[in-house]
Records
---
Amino acid sequence: MKIGELATGSGCSIETIRYYEREGLLPPPVRTSSNYRDYDDGHVELLGFVRHCRSLDMGLADVQRLLAFRQDPQAHCADVNGILEQHIAHVAKRLAELQTLQKQLLKLRARCRKEVKACGVLQALNDRLPVHPSK
Amino acid sequence: MKIGELATGSGCSIETIRYYEREGLLPPPVRTSSNYRDYDDGHVELLGFVRHCRSLDMGLADVQRLLAFRQDPQAHCADVNGILEQHIAHVAKRLAELQTLQKQLLKLRARCRKEVKACGVLQALNDRLPVHPSK
DNA sequence: CTAAACCCTGTAGTCACTACAGGGTCAAGC
DNA sequence: GCTTGACCCTGTAGTGACTACAGGGTTTAG
């Protein structure tokens, strides 16, 4: 199958598929006489795996490691689980950050609605933040 | 004050300050005879405003628009509020996405713990996703 | 006087794509 | 046989918000 077919079948763009190939996430397929990429069912499955991982917001480096585990008969389930646990922690952290953020934004909006004349929002944004020790 | 002092005072890096100047978020300060940037209190306040906006995860384009409103006596509070509302919607959307994500990841983890031998996680990740119509 | 700590410019790298530019190939209809 | 349009190719540059050098100049403390 040609790249366009694989793209519509997998729900990602042609450019993304070529990008995955460059990055080593998809093995280069055979080429037709006119240099077109010619994919088989293995590619379809592999790309499905990659897209599933990406839909869970995993980075491509993690996806690559999972792909390696799939190939490796020596790999342990614990290795797979480790990547998963790390990713769960990462998402939980970002989730907490966003929730804090949302609270602050709603507070800010409340200010604007009350003090239209002097624009409470701009005033509030002007307040300096406590400076956290940054690297 | 020199750039290093501004950096430690504001909690962002020297490179970031120079980057903001290049992007037009901070006006270029005067230079000393040895070509060092020499900042004043106006810069400190401006940078505080920018960092506060960034801590709320606003994009630099939005920050720039807010900065323009600060300068403009014609600007309406409604303009400021518009940016804020958009941003609140944006954060709410991302929050919902992450919550869905987290549920899926926890489900996935549950699989791994049960079926160690055949690694349920890798199997589950191999399941194809329903293909959403993608652009 | 020297060494460390600071500053400068300019460029390239990050991540996961996306968007061209500038070409080649193929199938259908005239 | 020729054109038109849909498809494919490579290679490069852009996105956002920085970060990380390389390769220099300046200032300050001992």
---
Amino acid sequence: MDLKPVRVRFAPSPTGRMHLGSARTALYCYLLARRTGGQFILRIEDTDRKRFVEGAEQELINGLRWLGIHYDEGPDVGGPYAPYRQTERQQIYQKWSNELVARGHAYPCFCTPDRLEKVRQEQQKQKQTPRYDGLCRQLDPAEARRRVDAGEKHVIRFKMPTEGQTRAVDHMRGEITWENAQLDDAIIIKSDGLPTYHLAAMTDDFEMKVTHVIRGSEWLSTFPLHVNIIRALGWPEPVWMHLSVFLKPSGKGKMSKREQAAALGDGHSIFVTDLKQLGYIPAGVLNWIVLMGWGVAEDDVMTLDQMVQRFDIDHLTASPAAINFAKLDHFNGTHIRLLDTPTLAPLLKPFFAAEGYTVDDETLLKVTPLIRERLVTLDDCIPFAGWFFKESVSPNPADLVAKGLTPANSAAIANRAHDILSGLPAITHAEAEPPLRALVEELGLNPNQVFGILRVAVTGQVVSPPLFESMEIVGREKVLARIRAAIRLLETM
RNA sequence: GCCCCCAUCGUCUAGCGGCCCAGGACGGAGCCCUCUCAAGGCUCAAACAGGGGUUCGAGUCCCCUUGGGGGCACCA
């Protein structure tokens, strides 16, 4: 691919939550900018006041920050082409809209929503493609001008060519051709004076000197409109790329609200801020989404920096990708394992806190290496290590009985172990294991049987981090006390 | 209904005419390691949607069919 520095923008509208699709678009934009040493811009497309959602912009920004996708220019950081919120750029769109009308490429339309709706219904009844019937396109420009000046309510429509074809090139898909006769005269300025996406995005991309437009494939159908606007104004054309959508895990269509809720109940989500709360880390999420639409032959575990090194827009995939949460889990676990203890431990803390545990850093730092390779998500630290921060544990009596043995036998074994351990000045991994192994040998049992009793006695659970390391962290007095409690429990069975 | 896009293992993908009786990853199965659970190592099963062309040669190029997806708003 060409490595000349580019200017790319991520241009979401603050109308909802930030989902995986947006995150991937932002990621690809970011990767391309960094790869070429260019700039990555965040632009807020907030011209739809009806669907505007308070706080959505902040969630977007938080999401990008959390993922580590940093932008060079944006509403909160400024930049040479500020402002970066479209509602603050209204005069600019007005100017270019006027220019379009002056050049005969656009016209005022006085049709009411009511009339438009009737036309649409009529067309549908006749099995025709619903589109504007061009009534106001015939209007004499001077007459139209007079009505506008008189304050008559109107919109501005772009005058699409009616003959021939429109051709445009998508970098991933090649040349695409449309019959102009199929195209519609889209509204570019609404009656509230604000532009629609079509005018606003094209204008800003021009004004902000955007060289590469990476956006969702939902824009493919309005692609010919956009290139016609640009060409009518004589603006340079960017490199276009329309990324495909993400499909639900079954591969059939997009995720519905209901399915989103089901995924959440399962510990998964398509929303970035949810993922953070569910215990996913940015590196895992990033590695997961970057591979949905971009393939690497081998070594698919990558950090953000490694992605930058390898990213190549010539090798993006155009086909829709089904979401696979199992793969997210895999990448998340893999990247957690890549974290060193001083980095991982603080990430775990809020999850312990959320469960009501008070954790001291000293213990946490010792516990972290023991559970690191067992974590798929950060919140897995609770079942594995929550018990470390409890004053006492309450084992299920039945779990204390070793496989193939009676409660009495188990109690006797626990007693022997207790004697051995109490004879040690301190219970460390190095000092405790040999004599207990010897005990296993002497009794002619499996390590599993003996260590299993102790595991349940000390940790209160059947699954835990390694026994000896765990006992060392818990400390001699507590270990011995818990074994004695377990013996008493076994004796009452 | 109309327009446009897409099509390799269940899933994400490598492949850009011969290196492919198709490679990697997830998931699945088995084995090894092992104090539980993991992690790790090894092995196995698993795909070029179908049909026509072009070519000495096609997963790779073209066409059709089928299937899937997106769009058809004074939303983005």
